[in-house]
TrEMBL record:
GO terms for molecular function: G protein-coupled receptor binding; neuropeptide hormone activity. Keywords: Signal. One of its GO terms (biological process) is G protein-coupled receptor signaling pathway. The keyword Signal applies. This is Partner of bursicon. The lineage of its organism: Eukaryota, Metazoa, Ecdysozoa, Arthropoda, Hexapoda. It comes from Acanthoscelides obtectus. It comes from the Eukaryota. One of its GO terms (cellular component) is bursicon neuropeptide hormone complex. InterPro entries: Bursicon_suB, Cystine-knot_cytokine. Residues 1-16 form the signal peptide.
């Protein structure tokens, strides 16, 4: 009886170690298109600026599991982990394609570009789902 239990324990441990190595939460480069509009105090469109911006994103998978439980009301113990940012950094990016409300490209100094603040992940990790605290 002892030998069977030991064999099952060892197999379980190997399976768990393999599942842990399948986590692949990474910080990856990406590109997004941003459009930002600017309005005057009366709510009229003054200009629209846009551009393709290189940013980081979190992508990958994390180990999650569901197992039967006599303690929880649902009868299952769920451990869900999600790949998301562990730290955000703030960047100022400049959009250089600016247009007036008629769609004409703005070329004069001061209106031909717009600075926008952006927060992007600088590092990503697996976190328990629903845990919004940053460590």
């Amino acid at each position: 009886m002892f030998y069977i239990f030991a064999a099952i324990f060892c197999v379980s441990k190997v399976v768990c170690m393999n599942e842990m190595s399948e986590e692949s939460c990474e910080t990856l480069p990406s590109e997004i298109h941003i459009t930002k509009e600017e309005y005057d105090e009366l709510g009229r469109l003054v200009r629209t600026c846009n551009g393709e911006i290189a940013v980081n994103k979190c992508e990958g998978s994390c180990k999650s599991q569901v197992q039967p439980s006599v303690i929880t009301p649902t009868g299952f113990l769920k451990e869900c982990y999600c790949c998301r940012e562990s730290f955000l950094r703030e960047r100022v990016i400049t959009l250089t394609h600016c247009y007036d409300p008629d769609g004409m490209r703005l070329t004069n100094e001061g209106n031909n570009a717009m600075d926008v603040k952006l927060r992007e992940p600088s590092d990503c990790k697996c976190y328990k789902c629903g845990d919004f605290s940053r460590r």
